[in-house]
Amino acid sequence: MFKAGCESYITASLMTSDMTTRERIINLLQSHSNPLSAEEIILVLNLQNMKPRDIYEHLKHIAKSVKARSGGKEVLAMIPPSCKSCGYIFEALDKPKKPSKCPKCKSERISTPTFKLVSTY
Ligand SMILES: [Zn+2]
Prior knowledge:
3-stranded antiparallel sheet, alpha+beta, Arc Repressor Mutant, subunit A, single chain, binds zinc ion, 4 helices
């Protein structure tokens, strides 16, 4: 009895403390129906030592692993950044990032991309 209780306690604590940043980001995205930006992810998960570009790097891998482990039923969707001056939308981005400049009007007022997990069926 005691032994079993002990084991389950250890398993539970390992699960929380050993959770990787990527798993924490996946959990966060799964528990939110509204899309989140890299800045919001940093804030909510207390990842102040990270920059948005670190989060984009994680999201790149998360997109692959989420798709692989769900068999393509769940994917990471990016609401693409857009230019706040002329409305240009950066739709053709192949990876998560925030462009620095609008190719159309050269404005640097670019909205931040946001991310959410969506099921494809
Ligand atoms: Zn523009």
